[in-house]
Design a protein that fits this description.
Length: about 425
């Protein structure tokens, strides 16, 4: 008798103390749960073995990446329902699902064990980062982490990001396209930095060169871009040559800590500081301060998390750390601001664009889903599944104010404390490009 779905539903409802809001379809063809709800498809019993071996997020992530778990129906609705029921209630937590002394948990585990099939548990999918040893955020370890994320293939990123090749939050107006919104974001950064003909701009974490190209082409800046990704640098240099801007832009495979050719008139750091880490952020701030001329501006565009009541309890999301951004860390915006000020910067403007990132991520997910088969051929089915899940889940996190993104504009004060800023600092709100 095919009844695995019903048995799983009963086990989950006994553990959680309420009805499941999603439907379950099991490997034996059985189904259980509310009609019309999103369907959690468990394609193989291996998924249960993964969860028993690694209770919590990592076990679920491994099953998802391996294709043993899937969702039919609205992905966002399903993630929302499961997050509200499981993660936000603490049923899935770091290291397990409630303490093992809880009789409900023990009953749940025993029930899963009967359904899971023979041991041992399957190996982790090949897309998972192998555990790194050594000190966090050394130059070597950071280079390896960046390579894991960004050296997936330029063609794959172009499929997801679109022609703009900008892998950070766009700046939207109603009815605009993704390419227009990304152009507007780059232009906003240039205007906040007050770039003008001949200014030296350092673009830290320059990606595929989009910011450098925009600053050089539209504002006449002379740009140095640094990235740790060999593939990004090669792609950026090719684009720059095609634009006829090779005399204005220099792209280097270089750690920002090794840049020594300041001073620069301005620095842009867009979606890079998340890779720096708490232990290195003051060093990051000090280095960028030293690279700016007095009166020069830094635009730090960075994802932020909500503060914890006990900051020592913060830990990096297991799925993100294992499959997406190894060693990536988020900090509250207040901590980022304080560290920049401690380095000597003066804070001049902070703009939250949280809702803009949710819109951006939903467009990226749509691009991926529209060309799914091609994306799988470019990388792997597991890698494509990683990107779909992380971008969709991140969109929901931005929408629900679990995380945010901020553009922080700071200045290195000139002699006597002068900022060399206009009295009305938000003159950048009127786009120079129309």
């Amino acid at each position: 008798m095919a009844d695995a779905a019903l048995r799983l539903t009963r086990l989950a409802e006994e553990l959680l103390g309420e009805k499941l809001p999603v439907r379950i379809r099991a490997w034996d063809g059985s189904e259980s749960g509310p009609p019309g709800a999103p369907v959690l498809v468990i394609r193989h019993r291996r998924a249960l073995r993964r969860l028993l071996w690694k209770p919590g997020e990592l076990g679920l992530a491994r099953a998802w990446v391996a294709g043993e778990l899937d969702i039919e129906g609205d992905l966002y609705e399903a993630l929302d329902l499961m997050a509200a029921l499981i993660w936000e209630r603490g049923a899935v937590a770091e290291g397990g699902v409630h303490p093992v002394r809880d009789p409900r948990v023990r009953a749940f585990a025993k029930g899963l064990l009967r359904l899971a099939g023979p041991w041992p548990p399957p190996p982790a999918p090949p897309e998972e980062v192998r555990r790194r040893s050594g000190t966090l955020h050394t130059k070597r370890r950071d280079k390896e982490a960046i390579s894991h994320h960004y050296d997936v293939g330029n063609d794959f990123y172009e499929l997801v990001l679109g022609p703009s090749m900008v892998y950070s939050c766009a700046y939207w107006e109603d009815g605009g396209s993704l390419e227009e919104a990304q152009r507007d974001k780059l232009d906003l950064v240039c205007r906040k930095l007050a770039l003008k003909e001949g200014d030296r701009l350092l673009d830290v974490g320059c990606g595929w060169g989009s910011m450098a190209i925009h600053a050089a082409r539209e504002y006449g800046a002379r740009v140095t871009g640094v990235t740790l990704s060999v593939e990004q640098a090669a792609f950026a240099r090719k684009r720059i040559a095609q634009e006829g801007l090779a005399d204005r832009i220099d792209v280097r495979v270089q750690d920002y800590r090794d840049v020594r050719d300041g001073p620069y008139d301005a620095i842009s750091s867009i979606g890079m500081a998340e890779h720096v880490g708490t232990v290195r952020f003051r060093e990051y701030a000090d280095d960028l301060y030293a690279l700016l001329r007095p009166g020069g501006r830094l635009l730090n565009h960075q994802i932020a998390r909500r503060p914890e009541k006990d900051e020592s309890s913060y830990h990096v999301d297991d799925f993100i750390d294992a499959y997406v951004f190894p060693d990536g860390e988020l900090a509250p915006v207040g901590r980022t601001m304080a560290t920049l000020e401690e380095a000597g910067f003066e804070a001049r403007d902070v703009e939250s664009i949280r809702e803009h990132y949710a819109l951006t991520l939903r467009r990226w997910v749509a691009n991926l889903e529209k060309q799914w088969d091609r994306a799988v051929r470019m990388t792997s089915a597991g890698r494509a599944r990683v990107w779909r899940l992380y971008m969709a889940a991140s969109a929901l996190s931005f929408e629900h104010n679990k995380i945010g993104v901020n553009q922080i504009l700071v200045v290195r004060p000139a002699e006597g404390g002068a900022s060399r800023m206009p009295l009305r600092t938000r003159d950048w709100t009127a786009s120079a490009t129309g």
